[in-house]
Write a structure and sequence with these properties.
With 239 residues, the chain is mostly beta strands. The chain is 10% helix and 33% strand.
């Protein structure tokens, strides 16, 4: 008859079960068969990466969308920002273009396609950001622009023609005003004195401001006591 011998079993600690469940958070946890409150895990490997391990560590997401951790909705990371997506312009920087707003910040934009400006009589007209005159007529896809009147101490019809032929504003071709209507538009749209006059070329008239129109004569009597201005006419495409 073989007599049995009693052997004291090893403890959980002796078997390597020395960790608590909280110490093994995010790792495979093997419980000790003798004490389920302790166990073993390899902290060098992780069966489930933590939110922090996956990069959900942001505290705020200005100009970006929050992307939440799938296992903890209080942890998040940020999507690509407005700047990352190319929304780097202000509204003023996109003047003349359609605005495409960032979905995460409505004050950040991309510039879209160019827009066609609209003009009314009296509007300033600019080329490459420089104002070259004011609109006196809108003709479908073009505008008639008058240059800023310049006062002259010794005016003449030949002087007016020469002045306009040599004007280079906006890269356009300028001519002397040729009708009473153009004279009236120029002298009413621009701020000039009430005793203003200006020449027009086609019928070699001398015109005096009269309300919002001009009264013209072939005589130069108006020139004697009036402030005389030169202004030129140019046609420009709306674009």
């Amino acid at each position: 008859v073989v007599q049995a011998q009693c052997v004291t079993p090893p403890t959980c600690a002796q078997l390597g079960y020395t960790k608590t469940a909280s110490e093994c958070s995010g790792h495979t946890f093997l419980k000790c068969p003798f004490d389920m409150s302790v166990g073993y895990c390899d902290l060098g490997t992780s069966s489930t990466s933590s939110c922090e391990d996956l990069g959900y560590t942001a505290t705020s997401c200005p100009d970006a969308e929050k992307i939440y951790c799938p296992t903890d909705s209080t942890k998040f990371k940020c999507s690509s920002s407005c700047a990352d997506l190319g929304y780097t312009k202000s509204a003023s920087e996109c003047s003349g273009y359609t605005l495409i707003a960032c979905p995460y910040n409505s004050d950040k934009y991309k510039c879209g396609t160019a827009t066609t400006p609209s003009y009314s009589v009296g509007d300033s007209y600019a080329v490459n950001g420089a104002i070259i005159g004011k609109v006196i007529a809108v003709n479908g896809s073009t505008v008639t622009v008058a240059s800023q009147p310049q006062s002259k101490t010794s005016p003449s019809l030949d002087g007016l023609r020469n002045y306009c032929e040599n004007l280079t504003l906006g890269g356009g071709m300028w001519t002397a005003p040729s009708t009473k209507s153009q004279c009236g538009s120029i002298l009413s749209i621009f701020t000039v004195s009430s005793d203003s006059a200006m020449p027009i070329s086609d019928d070699e008239s001398y015109c005096q401001k009269s309300g919002k129109s001009c009264s013209c004569s072939r005589s130069d009597i108006y020139w004697t006591y009036r402030v005389v201005y030169y202004s030129c006419i140019g046609e420009f495409s709306i674009k």
